Amino acid sequence: MPPIPGSGLAKGLAVTLRTMTRRTVTAQYPDAQPELPPRSRGVIGLFEENCTVCMLCARECPDWCIYIDSHKETSPPAAPGGRERSRNVLDRFAIDFSLCMYCGICIEVCPFDALFWSPEFEYAETDIHELTHERDKLRDWMWTVPEPPALDPGAEEPKEISAARKTAEKLEAQRAQAEQAEQAAQAEQTQAEPPHDEKGQA
């Protein structure tokens, strides 16, 4: 059946009339904060403990707005006869948000989950040079990152959480072992000390 002439115009006018009769609602910002979606792209938060200075985020950034400085430190061998290990230590991590186009590539390519989206959006500045935020500010934004959605019932635990738990349990076991060894050494030292002679007795 061919459409009735003018039906499209009538539908458009009906939508216009419905909109005109609705009450206008004004968001009272900044007195009332907007309810942002959980996956809003506001700023990028840095979880510094997970950063290994692999430079992947800086290399993959299309705008080259990530600045990273680091130095190498040598740690002693974990066991006698082992070799020393060197690791990168983060000195500077900054993002120039005047250049950032919020593509999220840096967050996607980070293999150690050190970068996260935060819904924070109130970071306007009067000087464009102040839009380059250093790692202290990025770390503060990390605490505004919303929690990830809950796992489905029966889903496997994420590898990151299980690895972190194993590391924490290993460190706790090492600490307990060191405390036991220290207590045993103190007990041996107490037993090896000769009895203290009392002076001034007849």
Largest sheet: 3 strands, antiparallel
Which sequence of strands runs across the widest sheet?
Answer: 2-3-5
Instruction: Indicate the mean pLDDT.
Output: 87
> Helix count?
5
Structural classification: alpha+beta
Sequence-ordered SSE layout with sheet pairings:
Blueprint: H1 7-21, E1 43-46, H2 56-60, E2 66-75, E3 85-96, H3 105-109, E4 115-118, E5 132-133, H4 135-142, H5 159-192
Antiparallel strand pairs: 1-4, 2-3, 3-5
Protein model, in words:
The protein is of the alpha+beta class and 202 residues long. The chain is 33% helix and 16% strand. The chain is built from five helices and five strands. The protein has helices at residues 7-21, 56-60, 105-109, 135-142, 159-192; strands spanning 43-46, 66-75, 85-96, 115-118, 132-133. The protein starts with 6 loop residues before the first helix and ends in a 10-residue tail after the last helix. The mean pLDDT is 87.
